[in-house]
Amino acid sequence: MSATLLAVALSLVSAVAYAAAAVAQERLASRTVGTDSGVLRLLGTGAWWGSVLLNASAALLHVAALKYGPLTLVQPLGALTLVAAVPLGARMAGRRVLSVEWRGTALTLAGLGALLLTASGPAPDDTLSLGEALTVAGATAALIGLLSRRGAKPGLRHATASGLASGIASALAQTVTVAVTDRTGPLLSVEVIVVALLIAAFAAGGLLLSQVAYRGGLGAPLAMVTLSNPVAAAIIGVTLLGERLQGGITGILLAAAGATLAARGVLLLTRTSPETRETQETRPQPSLIAAERRPELTSRPTETGPIATLPDFQSLPPIPVLPGTVVVLPSVPTQPEPAPGALQAS
Fold first, then answer.
1. Chain centroid to CA 46: how far?
2. Which residue in 87, 96, 215, 302 is a FRET match for 70, CA 20 to 30 A apart?
């Protein structure tokens, strides 16, 4: 198996694991909406640690993929996380996948296919220097702090910050992976240790930021994470690691078309909010609408029997009873008694 195919295979499995983790995080966040449960209180829940385990497994697979493929190839495949999360989230919620979700999935896959044709390249051999890694980390931390401030649409901003943190962590992870496996220097050099600490910080920050973002649902926050992650990693790969798209001008145009299709698919997936799904799933049935418009379908005449005449109990004289005595009233007749004159006439 070639290095490119191995990178794609590892990325696919990583995307499925990330999707399962995202669904678990969203379901956990939905249970804490409207409460004062902070992120630190999640440390005592088993569901949180389950999502952490899934994220850690996906991250290891992702790092392994970065060993065999460039950032411009591996990072766009992360969009498959959104594609896998749609049917998985629907199944966990006990509903069917909507048609707009299938269309969004198809467009996303088509766009990714075009991107893969242009991003296929040799295994990476260049790494970030310690100065470059610290500069990138400082600039990213400042941008994340700006996005995490209080203001409008906190869910989408936290999701964007989470995607940036994850993308930078991936770029730094590729540097560590290449530096450790090429065996040209010491295994635990100062550069490797510092970059590894930066990876841990950005990975943990991205996980916590995504947990906050998922309080507003799964589709839109996950889409923002999916888009901002490869953008951040691709910028580093092209500007600092010397990665290039294949095919020249034709490859650039094909990549632009693929990015447009993928963005369109992601936008369709983000429009399927919980309110939209609930409205489409609870739409009135045609039979009920017809019954409301034609009352004769449901209203039928009923047969009535003889009318019972109840006596006026207030006109009856009081009945003296002893204390503790139970009084049983006579049953009410179902038919009126005939008048005395009618009996004599007969």
1. 19
2. 87
> Closest Cα partner for 193 from 254, 263, 110, 134?
134
pLDDT at 230 over 70: yes
Per-domain boundaries in the chain: 3-281
How many residues are listed for the chain in this entry? 346
Which pLDDT tens digit goes with each residue over 281-336? Answer: 444 444 444 444 555 544 455 555 555 555 555 555 555 555 555 555 555 555 55
User: What is the rounded CA–CA span in Å between residue 213 and residue 220?
Assistant: 9
**Whether pTM exceeds 0.70:** no
Reported as half-sphere exposure (CB side, CA atoms, 13 A), residue 284 has a value of 7
C-alpha to C-alpha distance for 309 and 302, rounded to whole angstroms: 20
At residue 198, the pLDDT reads 93
- DSSP per residue over 121-188, as a string? -PPP-----HHHHHHHHHHHHHHHHHHTSSSS-HHHHHHHHHHHHHHHHHHHHHHHHHHHHS-SS-TT
CA 119 and chain centroid, separation:
27
Kindly state the tokens that stand for 237: 């790969």
How far apart are alpha carbons 58 and 225 in whole angstroms? 15
